[in-house]
Write a structure and sequence with these properties.
Blueprint lengths: L2 H34 L7 H24 L7 E2 L1 H14 L2 E5 L5 E2 H15 L6 E8 L2 E7 L7 H12 L16 H11 L5 E5 L2 E5 L1
Parallel strand pairs: 2-4
Antiparallel strand pairs: 1-3, 4-5, 5-7, 6-7
Helix pairs in contact: 1-2, 2-3, 2-4, 4-6, 5-6
């Protein structure tokens, strides 16, 4: 994958997320109006649809940050990241602890969310993911009673990270594992390299 195709992919992701978030947001507003109007007396059916809509909106916002185009000057607020992760965590088997205390450059947050997805792929039974940041350094730790990283994906990430010319390492990856290709490419642009450490019940990815 060349840097050009990676940037083109990020632009496509941005466009898709941009076009999806507006109608999903409109649905959420409509559901809120229905609730205020007493539709179904706020019954379980409306609650289920509202919950699903909130999850879809959070997922799109997550993807827009993780896979969308990012400029050097763009920032992401802590409140936005925490709100997205809280919504996703409430609907899934993984909870998230976002430790950074302030707003951060979008490219940094993008790096963190790609790393988060790599770690999450190693938690088949769910668990907790803790994300910590020091200037120029992310530490993303997955905690679970079962840690099961896919060797092929992590080895491919390492090969791309160390390849003299990343374009020479043609990725072989399923769509749900694309983060293992994008993470080392973005890390290289920022002068960093991902590293992983595994122990009983714990997997830590630093970048």
């Amino acid at each position: 994958m060349t840097s050009y195709t990676a940037k083109l992919a990020s632009l496509i992701a941005s466009r898709i997320c941009h076009d999806l978030i507006s109608p999903v947001g409109a649905i959420a507003n409509g559901l809120e109006l229905m609730s205020l109007g007493g539709a179904s007396n706020g019954g379980p059916e409306l609650a289920l649809v509202t919950e699903s809509c909130d999850y879809a909106s959070a997922r799109i916002r997550f993807f827009r940050i993780a896979f969308g185009a990012a400029t050097d000057k763009a920032m992401v607020s802590r409140n936005e990241v925490v709100a997205v992760l809280q919504t996703l965590g409430a609907a899934g088997r993984v909870s998230y602890d976002w430790a950074p205390g302030g707003d951060l450059p979008r490219r940094e947050v993008q790096l963190a969310l790609l790393a988060l997805q790599c770690v999450e792929a190693a938690l088949p039974r769910g668990g907790e993911i803790c994300i910590e940041y020091q200037p120029g350094h992310w530490s993303v730790t997955g905690l679970s009673d079962r840690i099961a990283p896919d060797p092929a994906q992590w080895q491919q990430m390492e090969r791309i990270a160390v390849a003299p010319v990343p374009e020479s390492e043609e990725p072989v990856v399923a769509p749900n594992h694309v983060q293992f290709v994008l993470l080392p490419l973005l890390a290289r642009e920022l002068g960093r390299r991902p590293a992983v450490e595994e122990a009983k019940g714990r997997l830590t990815l630093t970048v």
